[in-house]
Amino acid sequence: MIIGTAGHIDHGKTTLVRALTGTDTDRLPEEKRRGISIELGFAFMDTPCGERIGFVDVPGHERLVHTMLAGATGMDHALLLVAADDGVMPQTREHLAVLSLMGLPHATVVITKADRVDIDRLRVVEQEVRDLLAPTPLADAAIFAVSAPTGQGVDALREHLYQVSERSRAARPAQDASAQGFRLAVDRAFTLDGVGTVVTGTVHAGSVSVGEELVLVPGHAGIRVRVRSVHAQSRSADGAYRGQRCALGLAGLSRELVHRGSWLVTPELELQTDRIDVELTLWHGEDRPLKSGTPVQVHIGAASVLGTVAILDAESIAPGGSAVAQLVLREPIGTWHGDRLVLRDASASRTIAGGKVLDPFAPVRYRRTPERLAALSALQLPRFEDRLAGILSAAPLGVDLGRFAKAQGLRILASEFTGATRVGDWLIAADHAVAAQNAAIGALSAFHEKHPDELGPDLARLRRLALPRAPEPLFRAWIAALRAQGRVGVLGACAHLPAHAVKLSATEERISQRLGPALSAAGFEGAWARDLARDSGEGEALVRTTLSRLAQRGELHQVVKDLFYPASTMAELATLVRDLAARDGEVTAASFRDATYLGRKRAIQILEYLDRLGMLHRVGDVHRLRKDSRLFTDESVTA
Q1: Are 572 and 633 in contact (CB under 8 A)?
Q2: Confidence at 444, pLDDT banded by 50, 70, 90
Q3: DSSP letters along 87-118, please?
Q4: 20 to 30 A from 427, CA-CA: which of 18, 64, 297, 443?
Q5: What CA–CA distance (Å, rounded) separates 13 from 17?
Q6: Phi, psi dihedrals of residue 430, rounded to the nearest 5°
Q7: Number of folded domains in the chain?
């Protein structure tokens, strides 16, 4: 368990921790000289039942609230200190706001320097504290009067903390290392001779062991480090788990890459985001509502970053009220569902709001739709199973399970889901799947009515007509299911209703047979309608009509006007494109030209056609393979 101190400067936080643990947490020469805490300090205390309590001693100066916040987000319990001679002071109020807004469930109030005042003064201060706590979630906090130098009340406080630790241990959920990913919020980094880079922080979730690989986020994509050594609660250990102070010796990481605000996480949890959806509560002491567009300082984990608030389900948040909001950040951070956060005003002069992260993958568009607000409501539920069920109910286009698990801080999800269908990495509620399939049928019917002479739209176009926001793998899975049910036909790249087909006349059928060998022999160059007409001795108009009919049936691909490729040749070209993308990460006109021995113009025409089909998408002068595209593969419903 981690216990953090809080309170005004010079109210005895460091002195009390030293009385409880025997450790002086002021380690810097500047701290010794000035007699105040400047950086986070750490100490530990063993309980009679074998547990080890970690203490995070935070600065009390108003200019160091950002440092206090770096240590506060990992606390399980807090000691709010109030000096008997001073009473409640400005930083007492702000630190209380931080603890309350972060959702800390329990705290203990310690009235320090009790030896300096009489009993009447102690009663006045205690009542002052009770009045201060009354409108907060910590209203029932136990209060102890102590004097650290004389030892008055210290033993009683220590015994109380033993009991708090035991209750916390009994209530702690069993660790599920197979599901919960490891996350350490880094608050300090340094180098040691013979060890290398060492980072310290509070373990927010999961567990880690010596020899495991971790990823540093944000801003260091692909950098993996190996855990060389572990110190948990200031003891050498084989591993560490949630709720412990932890120091990790790391191999493969330069000290310059890691700083306060970084995270070390299980590789499956690697993410960074500059847009998060959150549940916010405005501090009751604020004198004006919180409105969209307000600039703020956002504190999450040990990180601090500038951001802007967008209220999603209301016009504003009244003092003491709550709402869901989106925070748009100036730079990316690492964060996951359930992480606690605090907002300070843009000048960092006061704490104004707090809450928790609902979704680190907040959308840029459609963020206030009824479906999205219903999903955010579901994400506020305490049980994971209820959150997933609520999300499925609110998501007509299903849930990307890998992305959802990562956002929730989970390495894996169960393979069985009641009342929903799993399609690859996607999960969709049964009623939503039926509605989506019906939308595809309706779009096909409307297309046939408007274009009776065409076989049907290609699948990319059908997705744009029916369900433009549907992920392509999920959409193709729905089409495959409709095809298996006999409700949709697919020929080449085109979908159609079974009752609708483009039929060739006897003359067109004859010409089709004559053109087949020439089309196949044309290879990657393709065949022009006029050349096919000339070589076959058929009329150019009739040949052009026949080729158009075959393209409508999905048997040919018309790359540009009058230039045709048979489906087998286009599949070969698509395979070359996939190979180039796998090798280089992208496809350029030059690399495709060299691979196919085509001219630059023809190479560009083919790549642009694959863009239109939805297999590629162009970014500047290069083409990139769409990750969700299955066109011209064995998994494609068009194969």
Answers
A1: no
A2: very high
A3: -S-HHHHHHHHHHHHTT---EEEEEE-GGGS-
A4: 443
A5: 6
A6: -60, -40
A7: 5
